[in-house]
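FAQ
Q: What does a multi-component entry look like?
A: The components come first, one per line:
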Amino acid sequence: MEFDLNIMQQIGYIFSAILFIYGLKMLSNESSAARGNVVSSMGMLLAVLVTVIEIVNPVLVLSAMLLGALIGSAFALKVKMTSIPEMVALFNGFGGLSSFFLAWSEFNNLSAVSLIMILSFMTVLIGGITFSGSVIAFLKLAEILKGDNNFLNKALRWFLIFSLLFVIIAIGQVIAGGLGYELINLALIQKIFIALLIISLLAGLAFVIPIGGGDMPVVISLLNSFSGIAAASAGILLTNTALIVAGCLVGASGLVLTLIMAKSMNRTLYNIFFVGYESSSSNAAEIDGEIKPISAEDAYLVVEAARSVLIVPGYGMAVAQAQHVVKELGDLLEENGCEVSYGIHPVAGRMPGHMNVLLAEANVSYDNLLEPKDINPTMETVDIAIVIGANDVVNPSATEEPGSPIYGMPILEVYRAKTTIVLKRSMASGFAGVQNPLFFKENSRMLFGDAKESISKLVTEFKD
Amino acid sequence: MEIILLLFFILILAIFLGLELISKIPSTLHTPLMSGANAISGITLVGALSLDTGSNLQMILAFSAITFASINVFGGYLVTNRMLRMFKKK
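Then the predicted structure of the entire assembly, as tokens:
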């Protein structure tokens, strides 16, 4: 049999798909996850190596890869763990942009109107939306951009509907042309394609600008999914199986995360993307009780006597970069004979699993990180729950107040702990804009100030 | 056309496989999962390697597609590795 490079390439793609799948499978366990990532990167290396035979312009390819490797590595090694959500958002965008250019280039090679063009259109559309949407998500996560202009947001919604109509018409034209309808020639389709390039980028802006900062975990999960779908769609366009399989795995991953996030907030995707919290009806009931502030010194006395402590971190811990002092406090409590665990809500922070990464950075053992369903049944046995910069995820309105916008959202029920100490900068309400009755409960104490400073004070008290 | 249908077949199977695989990943690892997925979406690099570079525009498109895909591949795998090495049990 003749030695056929193309067959070798296809076999290479099969093995690379196996490596990707196995790598993701190893990611389902903390102890094998790091090796899983290496396995997945081997899959990528193999896929690239067997494609080397197809390179048309080696100088261009090598210089572009080198540039990408330099930029990518610099990002990866420099980024702070608190900024991971921004980085992931930006990288989603780059993935989409790469598919966008890929499909554009392939389109330019087509010399007659054909049905294949639908795939170019779809890839450019999804890739473009992913890119511009991710840039907005990045700007919002980095708190450079805030989207609270209601008039603009309404206008953008209308633009999105207009874009959708345009896409439907554009694809209709391609189908008509592809089926041999003579009035639609290549020159016309090329003009439509240029318009689509621009509209796809604008549609991404129109999609993400109106969505609030606190809904970003869902948005970046969805954009993550889109970047995979764009790659898979490009794969069909290029008849490349490696792109299809890898793209679908990413697409599925983003989709699963999106649904988990939406479920953890008890909201539908429609509500998150097209309605938002601000439009939900909120009939704020009067809250009984009063705020009871506590000083760090008094808080120390309370915590020092506790036998079991639950630490509930939220976005505030990330902002204050307090994860290391939190871990220090946890260690001191354990030395004091106290049982310490961490309650992690799936939507705490700005991306799925955000809190877990920060606590892992601070060397907290991952088997001490508990989800609401693990911790809620035994909440009564917790002496002290320390809430650090979390708000909506511990709001009892979610279980007690049927009229509340967040009613039905699964929460960490810290109000059932014997005592709750809430660390907070001010009395401002959480992202959902809902007042939190937890702060007014009989067993709640408020420790005002920057999370990092407050915990540092507790730590100093312990050491003295 | 037959090939396209076959490719759609692969696409559907890969989606279902992906959904099964990902739903088994614990929420602790969702952030590394996302950055690892970023790296995998850099697979467009494989498609971009063989792009035509006949005209100036085509050169720019190929160069950009390769650069952005490489950022994802290198950046994605490195940052995921950095994160996963921090996950420890004591």
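Q: Is there any commentary attached?
A: Sometimes. For this entry: Chain A touches chain B through 106 residues (CB under 8 Å).
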